Amino acid sequence: MDAHPPNSPPHPRRRSLLKAAGVSSAALLAGIGVPGTAEAAWSGARLRDDPFRLGIASGDPSDDGFELWTRLAPEPLAPDGHGGMPLAPFDVRWEVAEDERFRRVVRRGHALATAELAHSVHPRVRGLRPERLYFYRFRTGRWTSPVGRVRTAPRAGTRPASFTFATASCQAWYHGWFSAHRHLAADAPDVVFFLGDYIYEYAITAANLWREGVTPGEGHDRETVTLAEYRLRYALTKTDPDLQAAHAAAPFVITPDDHEVQNNYADETSAYGIPPEDFRLRRAVAYRALYENAPLPRAALPIGGPDARYQRRLVIGDLATFNVLDTRQHRAPARGSILGTSQERWLLDGLRGSRTTWNVLAQQVAVMHVTDDRVDQWDGFPAARQRLLDTFADPSVTNPVVLTGDTHRATAGDLHADFADPGSPVVGSELITTSIASDGDGADTDPYEPDWTQHPWVKFYSGRRGYTLCRMTPRELTADFRTVPWVQRDAHAPVSTLARFVTEAGRPGLEKVN
Amino acid sequence: MSYLAHPVRGLRASGRIATVDLTWHAAPWMPLVDHFAVYAARGRAPRESEESLLARTLYPHLTHAVLGPRAVTWHYRVVAVMASGARGRAATASATTTASYATGRPLAAVGEFDHKGLEFALSPAGSADYLDTFPDGVDYRQGSSSPGTHWPYLHPGPADGWAGRRRHTFTLRFALDAVPTADPGFALWLTDTHATAPGEAELSLNGTRIDGITFEKGATKGSLEGDATRTGSPLKPSFVELPLPAAAFTTGENVLTLEKTAGSWHAYDAIGVFAPH
To answer: Which residues from chain A sit within 8 angstroms of residue B59, using beta carbons?
Structure first.
C-alpha cells in the first residue's frame, strides 16, 4: 500500500513555514518522529503514573511499513487537554518485532513527545517485509505500553489470496458503549477503515448522555471549540477500552467527516453562521486535535493554516486499491462539487489508471440516490455523482465498490449508471456501515427506512449499531453486517451477523446470501 | 526547550447596551493558539485567576454580554494560551456599557430586563403550542395582562412553518394621563434570535410607523432555553433601543405594535416604553 498518493504534491509552504516558526517547528517535527534530531536524545522528567492510558495505534500500512501512534496522558481527562503532562518534552522509544514477546525486534527508534502536539508521537516505520504480521510497543521512562499488532500490505505485483477489512464510523461516546469495537477487535481484520465522526463536537448534557453508568467529567458541557476542548473530547472517546482494543488489534485508516469539526460544515463554511475567518481557526484546531489523536500520516497535520490532507491511496498488491476520500474540506455546494476539482480529478484519473482487481472508495456520505433533499450526501451533488458513476461505467475501471459511513444505518445498495433510470446497468455497489454508538441502541427499522427501501437498488437497511466486516478475494467480496442489540446499557452486548452480501468480480451488484 | 507564545496585540474594548465588545488582532498561524483566556473584573484590573476568568475563546473577539441595563465599567486582560500550554504576554483594556432606556421610569413594560425570558408564556421550549395558544397573535394590556399568560417567549416570523408561515403582530396597549413632553425610549431586549434568518419587524405606535427593525443574528438556541445568564449558555442576546417621538403618543390608550415582516423568530427578554431620563 502507498500511504502517500503518488501524484500528491508536497505542501509548497510547509517547509518555509516550519523554518519561520523556529523552536516550535522543531518541536512539531520531533513530535512527528523525525529520527536523528538532537531533541530525540533528550529525556524529560519522570512520570509517576502510566502515561499510556489512551492506548496505542497503527495506521496506513504499506508493503514495507506503517504509522505508529501513541499519546502520553497519565490523566487523560485533565481539563486543560494536556492529559496531565507537564510542558516538558519526553523521549518515547518504539519497537517493532516479529513476535509478541519482542524476542525478534526488527526496528526500533525514538520520537519526541512535545506539549505542542499534546505529547503525541507518530513515527513512520519503514523497511519491513510485505504481508507480515508485526507487533509494536512504546516505552517512556519506566513505563511500557500495551502491545499492538499490525500486518504489512502485500507487495505490488503479487496477488494475495484474501484480504480482510472492517468499516466503522460514528462513535458518539455519550450515546453508548463501544462493544462493537470489542467484537471488531476479535475479528482481527487486516485493516479497519474508519469513515468519519470519530468524535462528536456537541455539548454532553443530561439529555444526550445515553451511555449508562458514566459521567463525562469536567469540560464537556459545551460544544468543542478550542483546541483544549477538542483534545479533551478525543481523550474522553479514547478512554473506552474497546476502542483501544480495536486500535491494538489492527491498523486504522481514518478519514474524518463533519463532526470532527462541526455538524454539516463545508470547506470553510459553518452551517451555524460562524464567519469564515473564524471557522478557519476552528478547522485548524479541530484538524490538529484529530492528528494528535490518530495514527494519521504527516500530511494530515495542518501547519500554517486550516488545511490538512486526508485523501490518499492504499494499494493491496494487485488485489485492490482503496481511494480514501475527504468529502468535507473541499466541498463547494455552489459549484456542485463534493470533492473539489483537484481531488475529483485525482480520484477519477486514479480509478481509470488502476490495474488492481477491486477499486474501492473509502468515504463518508451516501453515494446512492435516496431523496433530493438529502443535500449533505451525494444527493446534493448530482452532477459530481454522475461523473463518478460515468467513471465506474468505464470498462477500464474494474469492480468499483463504495464504503460509506455517516447515516447510522447499515445499508447495502447497487449503484446504477443513471439513478434517473432504474433500468440502467449496475456499475458498482455501496456498503454503508452503521454507527458504533451514535443514536443509541437503535432498532431494526425506523421512520427513515421508507426513504431508502422505496428504491429497488436498496437491498438492505437496519438501524442497529455495529460495523461491517469484509473479506476480499480475487473472485469475490463478501460483506457481513455485524450488529449488537444494545449499546446504552453496558459494553457486554453480543454480536451477530444480520446480513451477508457477496459481489462477484466482473459482475457488478450485490447478492444476498442466506 | 522553551515554547514560543504570541503576545495579544490590538486589544480594543467598546461598550454598548448591556454589552462590551472585545476585539484583538488574530494571532499568526504558527505556533498554533489553543485559545485566548479573557479575564474580567469591575472596578479593578483583573488577575489571571480562575475567579476572574470570563471566557476561553478561539476567536480574536469576544462579546461580554448580559451586563444589565445600568452603565458599568469593566476591565479586561487577554492572554494567548498556545497549543503547547505556554502563555503569551497579556493585553489590557477597559470599557463602560451604555445605560439602557430601561433604567428610566416605565410607561409600559412586559417582562424583566434581566437577560432571561423564563417569565413568558410557553417558555422555555413550548413553541409547538404557539398557534393553539396565540392563534391571532398577541394583544397585551398593561395592568391587566400578565407575561406568563398573555405574551409568549417567541415571536414567530413568516419563515416559521411551525407558526403558519405568516406575519405575526404583537400589540402592547397602555394608558397615559398626558402626552410626554420629551421623546420616550423604546427598549426591546432579546435572549436570542435565529442564527441565519433573524428577520425584520415594523414598529408602530398608534397606527403610525415608527421604524423598521432588522434583528441581529443569534444562535438559534432561544427556542429551547431562556436564561442567557446561565454559565455556558449558548444564547446570543441582542438589544433594540430607539427613541419614540413624543408627538406619536396620545392621552388615554396608546397602542404599540410589533409586526414580524420577514425571517424567523426572536425570543423575548423584555419589551417596554420608558420615560426619558
So the answer is: 278, 281
